[in-house]
Specification:
Elements: E1 5-6, E2 10-12, E3 22-29, E4 32-36, E5 41-44, H1 61-64, E6 70-73, H2 84-94, E7 96-99, H3 104-107, E8 117-123, E9 127-128, E10 131-132, E11 136-142, E12 145-149, H4 157-160, E13 165-170, H5 172-180, E14 187-192, H6 200-207, E15 213-215, E16 222-226
Parallel strand pairs: 5-6, 6-7, 12-13, 13-14, 14-15
Antiparallel strand pairs: 1-2, 2-16, 3-4, 3-16, 4-5, 8-11, 9-10, 11-12
């Protein structure tokens, strides 16, 4: 049974939704997320190439279900986070805006057109076999809630400098590296994503009973951030 977290705001698994009273985040796979407040739709690191590098696959219907005129944000362009082919299809069928490593300055201006929204891009390390790739992690402040998206970075220093994060999406190695480097991360809830299928059983075993850690192991599961109402 999935857990229910209760803090200053609630993080719950839910299938209902009401506009502007909550932010709902659906886990699609890998670091792929759909985030919405019922008005604006964001897709993070999706669409990617299904099954790339042995990570999660998704059904073709997932592309068909993408909301029209959404905003697509990518941390980097590795195929388990980004697919030029799939994105081209979606943009043709659904329209929208795309942001990532090539137009960071435009991305950071989104707050000028979206109410109560701000995104800060942080250049973060992502090195594979000694080769460094362009990679950004993002801190989103939306309806006064802070959501951190680490992508594939291995360095915990950037998130370690941030304060009062409501929800941090991180791979397990960020938590591991932070512990080894004695870096404290100021986040209420950690959603651990980007797991290989063979890592899921141990993730559930180690974290299912940890109050502030939510392993993202089932595609389609949702986290809801309840917003304060006047």
């Amino acid at each position: 049974m999935n857990k229910i977290f209760t803090l200053i705001f609630c993080l719950i698994i839910t299938f209902g939704f009401s506009q502007t009273k909550e932010i709902q985040i659906e886990f699609i796979g890998n670091c792929g997320l759909h985030m919405t407040d019922g008005i604006t739709n964001f897709y993070i690191d999706f669409p990617y190439k299904s099954g790339a590098h042995g990570y999660m696959e998704f059904k073709e219907s997932e592309l068909d279900s993408i909301k029209e005129n959404s905003i697509f944000i990518f941390t980097h362009k590795h195929s388990d986070h980004y697919s030029k082919k799939n994105l081209k299809k979606v943009m043709k069928d659904k329209g929208g805006q795309t942001y990532g490593v090539s137009n960071i300055s435009e991305l950071e201006k989104l707050g000028e057109s979206i109410e109560n929204f701000e995104i800060k891009a942080n250049k973060t390390d992502h090195t594979v076999f000694g080769i460094s790739f362009r990679h950004y992690s993002y801190l989103i402040t939306w309806h006064n809630k802070k959501i951190y998206l680490s992508g594939d970075t291995t360095e915990p220093e950037t998130i370690g400098k941030m304060e009062k994060i409501d929800l941090a999406f991180v791979p397990y190695w960020i938590l591991k590296n932070a512990k080894e480097q004695n870096i404290t991360i100021d986040a209420k809830i950690f959603a651990v994503y980007h797991l290989y299928s063979e890592q899921i059983p141990s993730a559930k075993e180690n974290w299912d009973e940890v109050e502030n850690i939510r392993p993202m192991v089932e595609q389609g599961e949702k986290i809801t951030i309840e917003l304060e109402t006047e």
